[in-house]
Amino acid sequence: MSDETTPETSVGVVGDIADPFVDAAQKPKSRARVGSIRPSAMLYTSGIGATVDLPHLAVMPQGIDAWDKAYERLGGDPSLVLVPRLLEAVRRQLGHQVGELRQPPWLPDDLGGDSTPIGIPTRVFPQWLRCTGCDLLAPVSANVFEFENTRRHRPDMARFVHRKCKGRFKGDGRDRVAVPARYLIACTNGHLDEFPYDDWVHGADGNRKECVAKPQMRMREWRSNLGPQVSIVCVQCETSRNIAEITRAGGEASLPHCRGRHPHLPTFAAEDDPCQGEVRLMLLGAANQWFPATISVLVLPSRREPQAADVVAEVMGLPPVELAKLKSLADVSGWRQFGPAHMTAKFAGVSDADLWQAVQIARGDIPPLAPPPPGPSGYDPNHLLVPEWATLTHPDDFLTEDRRNGFKVHAVPVAGPLTPAVQEVVAVDRIRKANAFVGFTRIDALDRVGDDAARIAPIAISGKPKWAPATEDRGEGVFIRFAEPVVAAWETATLDSEVWAAHLAAHERNLARRQSRTATELVAEDRMPPPRYWALHTLSHLLIREMAMSSGYGSASLSERIYAWREEEGRGPAAGILITTTSPDSEGTLGGLVDLARTERLEEVMLEGLHRAERCSSDPICAHRVPKEQEDFLHGAACHFCVFLSETSCERANRFLDRRFVLDLHEGSLGLAPLLAGIRIGTAD
Asked: Among 48, 105, 98, which Cα is nearest to 76's?
């Protein structure tokens, strides 16, 4: 999305930005570090705005305004992800003011020194805690719970403690752990707030202001024939209410209006511009509390002979601060000699004159040599995949090994039994993937609201971030390209089949029932992948399951990237599978996966995988499964026993899968000829 169409964000009331490093030099009794997560978790499971469950408390990673304080503590320039294609994709979402993609701030704990470890700033959230001994419920600000984190190398033991708690039955006083209270409220605009225990219990009774001024309650829980019952009782006036009131039909009407709170920033809506979002009761850690909005691309290699457009793209990927230094040809020459090595190395083999021309084009001082390719005008899931497809299908047009971009491939002869369906096999010895985080949604995933950028919660207080968090993964893989004539002929026949008609109808029902009520109406046809995608997606799952037995990687460590679209205006067709393993460290480059690309190994893996998929322990139920009448599931002959993978591996959450598109399930195929009908199924010799 362009900068002009990026939605404005109302800042409203801004609170204090978290700075856990402010007292680092004074060595406080309770240390600031409370845990650790992998870099990939910052994008997909525990990123900005998510609640992270630690052993004894819950915290929320703060927005990038707080990250800036961490970078200041690190000193020097942040580590950047210099991938122009990813930067441009991020700018379409967040605006052209985004100048950098930064890796998370990180400084390890010095075991023998006095340095303070630097990481992602977090805030304790929710602030309401419950004592595990006496059920006392109070916010951190009430000072009835004491934070304890004294062991430097055991941040997992950080906790809040209720000192000298006498328990539910008034026994001897001893310290008890206080855990996060599990109720929150959220709205469809991405806001999240504490459950208003004090106001909700006391209602509109104005005579009990002293109870609200010093909130202390008890959360009592018991079982009944109607399920778990949770009662909130005021310690001072004994007024109580049962949470079950909210879970009944119409019960959410008793919740207050949304305050427009973003606890990760932190901001509240202004009084003259209140949030109108629909408020929902939310449980801490609920699956619909946080849906990340991320963008991932493969880092493509340099061409054998770099073209002018390639140089311009690399220049546009430089940080604005570095680009501002290049004001003349002499500046370019000096920058290449004394500038940051990881940036200047990207222009090895490019003359100073060509680089200066690219700088002028990037600034807009002179017109571009060729018009830039247009961005997607609407929903286009394949826009970022097209350049990757062009690279993987033409490996001879690129350097044999591009160490700067972490890319190395070589073609492998195709085994005879796999032809004519398989046209080309490429062993990906080294590959790099770049990932960026642009925001998140609550209650509804982004695809359920029509990819509406206005529903994405901001990651900066201003709503116009100057940079975005990003990570890099390195790994290896196998790329398989299928013959277009074979795929096109099969797809034409499949489009007229009863099985495909049943899947189309189920997809329309699924979209109509499960898209957000607050979203714009979506067109089911635009969101339905073509038959070739179903076939290649299913085959990818079968290969991953089989490769996990021979590569040394678990199936959850392998991921897929499907290139499957029909010919469109200005875009040729594609039919290919890239199976990779990527990791922030050397774990993704052990060599076991790329070894399976060898002719005899891949033949064995593919034939054995197809052979295993002929029979499922849920057959004949699985083999005959087709959505009928009011059923709206998005798969056919596929289940956990034969095709499904963990969500870390599947790019579509185990949707759009059907074994009968790939192989012959006999009577389960319902007369549908499989894509790989010409391949002899069975174990290779």
From this structure: 105
Assess if residue 407 is contained within a domain.
no
Sign of the CA dihedral with 319 first, then 322, 324, and 326 last: negative
What is the predicted pLDDT for the residue at 128?
Answer: 93
Work out the burial of residue 303: count CB atoms within 10 Å of its CB; fewer than 13 is exposed, 13-18 middle, 19 or more buried.
middle
Domain around 133: 19-84+98-177
So what's the pLDDT on residue 2?
35
Residue 58 Ramachandran class (φ > 0 left, ψ -120 to 50 alpha, else beta): beta
Most confident of 102-116, 331-345, 561-575: 561-575
pLDDT of residue 244: 84
DSSP state letter for 385: T
Residue 14 vs residues 162, 327, 345: alpha-carbon distances, Å: 31, 38, 42
In the block, tokens 């197809």 appear at 610
Q: Are 160 and 145 in contact (CB under 8 A)?
A: yes
CA separation (Å) from 274 to 198, 222, 262?
22, 37, 13
| Cα-based distances in Å from 232 to 29, 160, 217, 255, 602 | 34, 21, 7, 15, 61
Chain-centroid distance of CA 539 in Å reads 24
> Reduced to 3 states, what is the DSSP secondary structure of residue 574?
strand
Are 496 and 627 found together in one domain? yes
> Are residue 160 and residue 210 in the same domain, yes or no?
no
**Total residues found in the chain within this entry:** 685
| DSSP element (H, E) containing 429 | strand 422-441
For residue 88, report the phi and psi dihedrals to the nearest 5 degrees. -65, -40
In a domain, 200, yes or no: yes
- Distances 32 to 71, 104, 264 between C-alpha atoms, Å: 16, 17, 17
In this structure, are residues 583 and 602 in contact, taking their beta carbons and an 8 Å threshold? no
d(CA 312, CA 330): 18
- Which of 670, 650, 647, 648 lies closest to 659, judged by CA? 670
> pLDDT tens digits, residue range 282-299?
999 898 899 999 999 998
Segment (H or E) for 199:
helix 197-202
CB 45 within 8 A of CB 39: no
Residue 620, preceding peptide bond in cis (omega within 30° of 0) = yes
| pLDDT tens-digit map of 362-405 | 877 787 666 666 666 667 788 899 989 998 998 776 655 566 66
CB atoms inside a 10 Å sphere around CB 560:
21
Mean pLDDT of 652-658: 93
Whether the predicted pLDDT of 5 surpasses 60: no
Q: Which residues pair with 102 in a beta bridge?
A: 80, 469
Residues 220 and 71 in one domain: no
pLDDT given at position 203: 74
Asked if residue 213 and residue 158 are part of one domain, the reply reads: no
Cα gap 653→646, rounded to integer Å: 8
Q: Are residues 145 and 246 in the same domain?
A: no
Answer whether the bond into residue 584 is a cis peptide, omega within 30°: no
Q: Which of 171, 151, 172, 148 is nearest to 160 (CA)?
A: 148
Nearest CA to 122 out of 14, 25, 34, 30 is that of 34
> Phi/psi at 14 (nearest 5 deg)?
-105, 130
Phi, psi for residue 295 in degrees, rounded to 5: -130, 130
Q: How far apart are CA 334 and CA 242, in angstroms?
A: 71
Residue 444 lies inside a defined structural domain of this protein: no
Which tokens go with 517?
Answer: 């009520």
For the chain, how far is it from start to end, CA to CA, in angstroms? 53
The residue among 539, 446, 607, 463 whose CA lies nearest residue 95 is 463
